[in-house]
Design a protein that fits this description.
The complex is a heterodimer of chains A (235) and B (107). Chain A is mainly alpha-helical. Chain A folds into two domains: 49 residues, no CATH class; 169 residues. Helices cover 66% and strands 3% of the residues of chain A. Chain A has a two-stranded antiparallel sheet with strand order 1-2. In chain A, strand 1 and strand 2 form a beta hairpin. In chain A, helix 4 packs antiparallel against helix 5, helix 6 packs antiparallel against helix 7 and helix 7 runs antiparallel to helix 8. Chain A is elongated, with a radius of gyration of 24 Å. Chain B is mainly alpha-helical and 107 residues long. Chain B has one domain: Orthogonal Bundle (Arc Repressor Mutant, subunit A). In chain B, helix 1 crosses helix 2. The longest helix of chain B is centred in the last third of the chain and has 29 residues. The radius of gyration of chain B is 15 Å and the shape is elongated. The chains are: A mainly alpha (235), B mainly alpha (107).
């Protein structure tokens, strides 16, 4: 029987080998059981992810990391735009930052989409949150000055990360990181919804203070995809 | 409505039997096999059992507990219980329609 067990991949044997051998010792396999074990071994080799890492590293994680570089560029451009004047006084014109910001957001949304693809079919809540984040994120990226649009985007990511962690698609530490990173921008965007906009746009500070914590989100989504998710240890 | 175990191919039916078996309480591999045999009237091979267990565990429908000796029990998760309930309701509705049509044909 140990010969048949050796047909399975090593990762599978490490995870299930001991209990599988115990099962076989309790019920000596018939000929049809042996055929079934061989079929199972072929299946385990065709689907190594079933016993190995829950999700293999995904190279598309480089996209959010490239987005982070663009976001930093957008923040720098926004904070160093030309000084303009209006009825409220002087301010920095950050309109040149829109294009790199748009590209950065596109790469982040792609990363979120790739993470969402890992969700099992029954995770409807997390999937709805991911689509909410992708939809409102796309909307916000074409009009970043409309701060209120960012709220459903950030809340969508929050809901998605918590839902994805519950089904083991993202690690607990990744979710804790995302929640920690999003608390500041969500609080600031909520404040911007009720406070006068001009109070936040002095010297381009609005871009720096609000978008800088979002950089952490790019990093976490990128690393989450690149690292994959270890299969949770049995409790 | 998406069915969490419908797309498991040849493992869909064994997976359903396993979920039904675990709805009674945690069981290890051998206990699941014998229970499934009682429920379905046919034996489930060890390769099929562990192919289905791995898929169910990966989808978060069941979870492994601490091993007892060399045997590791599995239990149904809340997600698994919801999925099983949905699947059984779907089958009940399917059976009701089928039987009604058969009765209509007979009259």
């Amino acid at each position: 029987m140990s010969g048949l067990l050796r047909l399975y991949p090593r990762s599978w044997r490490e995870r299930y080998g001991e209990e599988f051998a115990a099962l076989i010792s309790e019920r000596p396999p018939s000929l049809s059981d042996r055929v079934d074990i061989v079929r199972g071994a072929v299946d385990a080799r065709l689907h190594p992810q079933l016993a190995g890492p829950d999700q293999a590293p995904d190279r598309s994680g480089f996209a959010p990391l490239a987005g982070l570089v663009l976001l930093v560029a957008a923040v720098w451009i926004g904070a160093n735009g030309p000084v303009r004047y209006d009825q409220y006084g002087t301010y920095r014109d950050g309109s040149a930052a829109v294009l790199p910001f748009l590209a950065a957001m596109g790469l982040l949304l792609f990363g979120i989409y790739r993470l969402m693809k890992r969700l099992p079919p029954e995770s409807r809540g997390a999937r709805v949150c991911a689509w909410l984040a992708i939809g409102t994120g796309a909307l916000w990226s074409i009009m970043p000055w409309y701060a209120v649009a960012a709220l459903p985007f950030l809340l969508g990511i929050l809901g998605f990360s918590i839902g994805a962690q519950r089904v083991g698609v993202v690690s607990r530490w990744l979710t804790i990181g995302i929640v920690a990173v999003l608390v500041v921008p969500i609080a600031l965007f909520a404040a911007m919804a009720v406070l006068p906009w001009y109070a936040f746009r002095l010297s381009g500070l609005n871009f720096v203070v609000i978008l800088a914590p979002l950089g952490g989100l790019y990093l976490l989504v990128g690393l989450g995809l690149l690292r994959g998710v270890p299969r949770p240890a049995p409790s | 409505m998406s069915q969490p175990i419908h797309d498991l191919g040849r493992f869909a039916e064994p997976a359903l039997y396993i979920l039904v078996s675990l709805s009674e309480g945690p069981k290890h591999g051998y206990a699941i096999m014998t229970d499934v045999e009682t429920i379905s009237g046919s034996a489930m091979g060890p390769g099929t059992l562990y192919g289905a267990l791995a898929r169910l565990e990966r989808r978060g429908l069941i979870e492994a507990l601490e091993p007892e000796d060399r045997r590791r029990p599995y239990r149904l998760t809340a997600l698994g219980a919801t999925a099983l309930e949905g699947q059984l309701e779907h089958l009940t509705s399917f059976a009701r329609i089928g039987l009604a049509r058969l009765q209509g044909r007979a009259t």
